[in-house]
Amino acid sequence: MPAASFRRIGLAALLMMASVFLSRVFGLLREMAIAHLAGAGGAVDAYQVAFILPEILNHAVATGFLSVTFIPLFIRHLVQGAEDEAWHVFGSILCIFGALLSVLVAIGVVLAPQLVRVVAPGLEDPATLAAAVRMTRIILPAQVFFYAGGLLMAVQFARDRFFVPALAPLVYNLGIILAGVLLFPWAGVEGFAWGVLGGAAVGNFAIQWLGARRVGMRLRVGWDWRHPDVGAYVRLTLPLMLGLTMTFSTEFLFRFFGSYLPAGSIAVLNFSLRVMLILVGVFGQAVGTASFPSMARLAAAGELGELNRLINGTLRYLALVIPCSALLMVLSPEVVRVLFQHGRFDAAAAGETADVLVWFLAGAFAFAAYTVVVRGYFALRDTLFPAVFGTLAVVLSLPLYPAGIAWLGARGVALAVSVSGVLQAGALFALWSRRSGNAGQAQVLRHYFKMGLLALALAPCLAGARRLISAGVSPETLAGSLAVCAGVGALFVGLMLLAGRWLGIGEIQELARRARGMGRNEKKGSEVRVQSSGK
Fold first, then answer.
1. What are the sequence ranges of the domains in the chain?
2. 361 contact partners, CB below 8 Å, separation of at least 6
3. % of the chain at pLDDT higher than 70
4. Contact 278, 28 (CB under 8 A)
5. Residues whose CB falls within 8 Å of the CB of residue 172, separated by 6 or more in sequence, listed in order
6. 28 CA to centre of own chain
7. pTM of the complete model beyond 0.70
8. Which one is predicted more confidently, 253 or 75?
9. Dihedral Cα 513, 518, 521, 525, nearest 10 deg
10. What's CA 502's distance to the chain center, in Å?
11. What's the pLDDT score for residue 531?
12. Are the CB atoms for 417 and 360 separated by under 8 Å?
């Protein structure tokens, strides 16, 4: 791949990493606001259950896959110089499937009482069930904005424009926070549901409309359902609609099985899962999103060897999630205390959330790796195999959940998610390597094994440092927890830098070089500003 392409991916990845990181921060602020105002009781359980039907509907029209299903079709026309045809296909797909989604939303709103009982059969409290139905009806229409906005973002990605799409999750989460906090005195947790609808309308649709116009959008309302690309889009999307992905199944299954646990368990599972997904989002989602247009171009050009090289290099980078997970495991009590233990979220809820978080973190690296491996198939315009594989894997993993609940309760649900994720990501990568003739598979696996050993070596050192620092401060307080996190985090950075040098881990060394380069650039910029002000 040309160096310019790597630079473009690197810049796009940095932008998307910044966006995902900030969106995760805003997402944490959202969860912190919910925890502060409502704690971890039945009302928060109802709020979480209210997302099940919208998540199913979102999955049913493959909204989360618009970038990987629509971009190859759109780019092909741009490469051929047929821009008018590209926008014609865009308009037809937007109108046809947007209308279909609107009908499904209307049906969901009408049948919400019956459907909520199906997707959360363990809910028995009438007040919790009624609240879940009300909030489901509020959140469902947001899926229309997500779908339309997904297409608008896809055309921007196809033009290698990432800034405006990067704003979507930030505005979305900000809308939830503002509406939830402002409306809570009158509407309770339901205020956050209204924030979901408003945030989706502004962040995922209105702003993206402006961004698409900046890249030359030519919207033509049309219903050309006989167009070959509409048929191709259906063939690419249908397996994703019918299949079960790892991310979707996790969001559904923790709520489904959590409904059989004591009140507040769904809330605890959600809070801990969101912390784990910070690692997945900052590393996996950001890099996967930024690299996919290049994956699609390499696949279209038949450069399978270069595609494998890109995937292998990305996976090696994502192995950094393993030691980062070890750090968060050690600091889980302090992290949860800092983030959530205030207002109505008491020490007991914080302790349970910290325990559950450890089991979720065990599978964080697999979730990050999966987001990249699956895009290799999508780049080849193969959505059928990942869908079939994912569905079989989810079905085979179902016994893990009741077994985990019987053994560990809510922690067992988190363990089931992690075990299922590791098995799915590992098997999918092995199958991809066999299909594509990936000669670098063994090197990637050895690298993950090395990072796993590194994490095992780091964990007792970090735990010892945590005990030492805790002896000198009060870890039960906010200031004490922050001191423990700062001290252990500083040790972690130092040990990682030493490991990068002694073990020859290029990814750590590269991150260190980039950090030093950013520091030098910032210093030079400061000197220039001082000189300018002196003049």
1. 12-242, 243-523
2. 276, 279, 325, 328, 329, 332, 418
3. 89
4. yes
5. 23, 196, 199, 200, 202, 203, 204
6. 13
7. yes
8. 253
9. -160
10. 33
11. 44
12. yes
